[in-house]
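This section describes the prediction task in plain terms. A model, or a person checking by hand, is given the sequence of a single protein chain and must write out its three-dimensional structure as a string of tokens. No templates, partner chains or ligands are provided. The sample shown here is typical of the held-out split.
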Amino acid sequence: MTFIGANSPRQVCQFFELTGLDRFVASSYGSQQKVSVQMEESIIEFSKEETSCLAKGMKPKEITVCEDETFHPETCLVAIEPNANYILLEKYSGDRKGSDWTLAMEEAVKELPVKIIQSTSDEGKGILHHVKKGLGAHHSPDIFHIQHEIVKGTSGPLAKKTQNVRLTLEKASEEVNRCMDKKVKYDSREPLPGRPPQFNMKIKKALLKETEALQV
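The expected answer:
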């Protein structure tokens, strides 16, 4: 529950209590925290043993890795092989320089018959140096940063267009209100000699312009 799902030892304790299993299994936080630590250590040890065992029968392979840094708050270097979704590297590091990445990655794949030919990341300076100098591999930016660069180049002109359209619509709406106010004001007073202004025609034209502005 704590390693497959997003549960904490406290939720496991609550599960035992709600199901009545706390009569048979220790459900205090301290007890379950110890179990969680033991399980984590066993998973890591099992991973090391299985990696060594399975690597012997693995055919040589060229792979791509996805690399990133997380902070909790220590710096943790993470690398995943995206095709298999296999975590190659997950290690705390004192720094995130290119040399730190290269050492950590060499340690992570030393038993595996793999050659890293490409890396995808957020283009951090340390990772870029590590990929190009340490691995001698090709680097590809992740899709977010490709989109970010495209947006930077297009957002300005698009924002200006949107602003111009908004101003045109505001002016058209103001003209509609102005024509209607004039008509109301004219109709509320005593009739004047001569032909009355063509308010309805003016309002109709103003509404037409407002509609056109809305459709842009």
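For orientation: The chain has a mean pLDDT of 90.
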